[in-house]
Amino acid sequence: MKAIGADGAFKLEDGNYFYEFDKEKPTPKNRELLVKIKAISVNPVDTKIRQTEPSEAPRVLGFDAVGIVEAMGDEVELFNLGDEVYYSGSPEYPGSNETFQLVDERVVARKPSNLSYNEAASLPLTALTASETLFDVFKISDKPEENKTKTLLIINGSGGVGSIATQIAKGYGLNVITTASREETKEWSYQMGADLVLDHNNDLAEEFRQHELNEVDYTFCTFNSDMYYETMIELTKVRGTIATIVAFNDKQDLNLLKSKSITLTHEYMYSRLIHQAEDIIQHHRYLTDVTEKVERGLYQPTVNEVLDGLSAENLYTAHQKLESNQMIGKLVINLESEED
Amino acid sequence: MKAIGADGAFKLEDGNYFYEFDKEKPTPKNRELLVKIKAISVNPVDTKIRQTEPSEAPRVLGFDAVGIVEAMGDEVELFNLGDEVYYSGSPEYPGSNETFQLVDERVVARKPSNLSYNEAASLPLTALTASETLFDVFKISDKPEENKTKTLLIINGSGGVGSIATQIAKGYGLNVITTASREETKEWSYQMGADLVLDHNNDLAEEFRQHELNEVDYTFCTFNSDMYYETMIELTKVRGTIATIVAFNDKQDLNLLKSKSITLTHEYMYSRLIHQAEDIIQHHRYLTDVTEKVERGLYQPTVNEVLDGLSAENLYTAHQKLESNQMIGKLVINLESEED
Questions:
Q1: Residues 5-34, chain A, touching B (beta carbon < 8 A)
Q2: Nearest to B258 among A247, A251, A255 (CB)
Q3: Helix axes B282-295, B124-131, angle to 10 degrees
Q4: Which Pfam families match (chains A, B) (predicted)?
Q5: Chain B residues with CB inside 8 Å of A275's CB?
Q6: Which of A15, A184, B172, B299 has the fewest CB atoms within 10 Å, i.e. is most exposed?
Q7: Fold that domain B2-123+301-334 belongs to in CATH
Q8: pLDDT tens across B187-208, in order?
């Protein structure tokens, strides 16, 4: 089987150190599935891990994947051979930039039957990040009518996570305000269901005043935690919650949270996996809920660009596009033309 | 009526700048009660506010009070004249270091009928801080059987807040580990219901290993947030929650929260009041629940020392004792010998 890897950390401006190599097709055991991959998507976290030293070489990056169950361990309960599935895997396994991959069934769900492989590949990592943020961090109700009076602010609504977080939040009854700057990103965010898109080139507190908006219940930062730290506290209600998925560059003053007793979480969708939480199966449940909502036409895929074929060149191009910070929605690489 | 105030910020080593003065008895309006005070307790927050410049002079400090409803505004719904009540008030009103005080009925509850004034005075501020932390921050269930598998770590279990937080947490079914250092504080914390008291003179992570303890669901810091920041993250479970009520002296690295997606709240029990939250009445509800539990014998008062009479001298002595950081439970000043 084929895989794309790299032997060390590298920056894109130093050249393309990804290369293709052969590896032996692994054998699934216990609750593992072996999946023949049909499409993958590339996420910002891939570009960050690429710049860290691997513990063994070559390292295969990639989380999101869609494919067909080709073999399974003897404790698998949730799937059958031939099932079409999607998932965003785990840092504990080699990544999805390969033609066959092992994955623990507890983080996998059935692929939405009304989506293409490319469309389905755009969803798992971002949908799981958004689901954990909404349900585990903000603890929103699973009854949409109970969320009608609640408002969520998403800093950067048009990226991968912002795009699906907007849809899930709307699906569960929240009011959603997002931010964007360019005309095309504003339009995209409205397409994802945002009730109002503010311009993050302007001061957000001033934008709130101009639109006569009250402080929000929940604030979700998907872009530059340092820049927005004080603003998020200002725009969040007393006893409200802030979540970020973006690492800080600077230390911050936690006393600023005190006056409004604000809660802050650094959300990380692999925390359950790397710390072997008892409820890892929550990923299967969240993703299954996404599948159901997609099949009912409530959520739409967020793919915006597709590259054809798993190659070192395509992977390098994908990383370049993600590091440009200009991405709208998700970038997918299709593997349907790959040989077995 | 009599009040104790000070005209400016002062440190105890510069002398006693508290003084007694006469003021006119105020008239309650809307939802206000005028309470004839029978006992007050002194809290660490009083010593901190004393060291800040007042916006007007003389400033009357104090939050906790127990007394009798002497007059009421025309919108009062929850109380009658002559009711015995207790509360920890609001920074929006003059404090409780006086013989009559105005208070909004939404933060007041009926005094437990089986407690003396001194005993009741020990509870409101600490019980409200503990209740907000347990229910609003940790979001524990109000059904004790649903909390049986959850564990709370309280850094400094023998202080005012730690003492009542231990009791409420036990009352609602949690397992409670506390920390203390001296023999008498350890014994006190066990009396409050702690399942295990660790020695915070030792490294707490090492104490956890020696007692073969797992990471906890919730960590509550009532002493030195900077010193315990990294340790609390280490000892808290993936997707667990940390609350502190102690201001930080240093900025902190929020990226340390990421690996376990840990949530952190800077709890402040006056945030609802100073930001005029819609659910200020939650204080009435929390305190009413404490009254019921005390009357059923489930919680005990935390008073450990009583000074007799509202005087500048007694208040200065109380502030000295609190600033020694040696307090066990609560210090109360009794006003029953005061004239009308």
A1: none
A2: A247
A3: 110
A4: ADH_N, ADH_zinc_N
A5: 237-238, 259-260
A6: A15
A7: Quinone Oxidoreductase; Chain A, domain 1 (3.90.180)
A8: 999 999 999 999 999 999 999 9
